[in-house]
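User: quick one, sequence for these tokens?
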């Protein structure tokens, strides 16, 4: 299965990852702005909230060469947003240290940040998946899912409803970042896939 690299992937992406023993991440595809490669969606007190990693962009830059822009303190903003959204959730304190440690190391490249996050997520879910990275751009395979999951594309993916901190105020929001499920359901998260 060929996937793009994603920042705190959503449930649809993670369901694909945990459904197999091996995935391949395309690190040579061109960076696509306004995609999940550099953003995730969480459930904040005002509803759906996007967290975006600022990057230095040039046209036709392969993912492996996309550098993260630390000129503004986006890490502080992301951690503050996560705390505002999930501090009251049952497992926030248990899992946040995995991810703030990764963010605070300030990886130079987006692909490295996303890889470290995916490894930590799989560890939190107790799932072992072999992750390979491409050595060149792959034009197409029969299991090419790189362009399937995108914020601007409608998704038919569905998953069981679980508790969300602000669902009484806004209703249940589907297919958010795995962080939403993990902070709310903890070790039981894997059973939702």
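Assistant:
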């Amino acid at each position: 299965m060929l996937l793009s690299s994603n920042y705190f992937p959503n449930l649809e992406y993670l369901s694909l990852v945990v459904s197999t023993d091996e995935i391949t991440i395309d690190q040579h595809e061109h960076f696509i702005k306004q995609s999940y490669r550099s953003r995730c969606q969480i459930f904040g007190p005002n509803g759906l909230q996007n967290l975006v990693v600022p990057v230095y962009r040039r046209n036709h830059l392969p993912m492996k060469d996309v550098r993260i822009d630390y000129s503004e303190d986006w890490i502080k903003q992301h951690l503050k947003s996560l705390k505002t959204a999930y501090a009251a959730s049952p497992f926030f304190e248990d899992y946040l240290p995995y991810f703030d440690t990764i963010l605070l190391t300030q990886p130079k490249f987006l692909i490295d940040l996303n890889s470290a996050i995916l490894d930590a997520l799989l560890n939190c879910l107790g799932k072992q998946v072999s992750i390979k990275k491409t050595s060149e751009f792959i034009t197409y395979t029969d299991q090419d899912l790189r362009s399937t999951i995108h914020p601007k594309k409608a998704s038919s993916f569905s998953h069981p409803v679980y508790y969300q901190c602000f669902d009484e105020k806004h209703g249940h929001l589907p297919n958010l970042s795995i962080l939403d499920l993990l902070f709310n359901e903890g070790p039981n998260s894997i059973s939702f896939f």
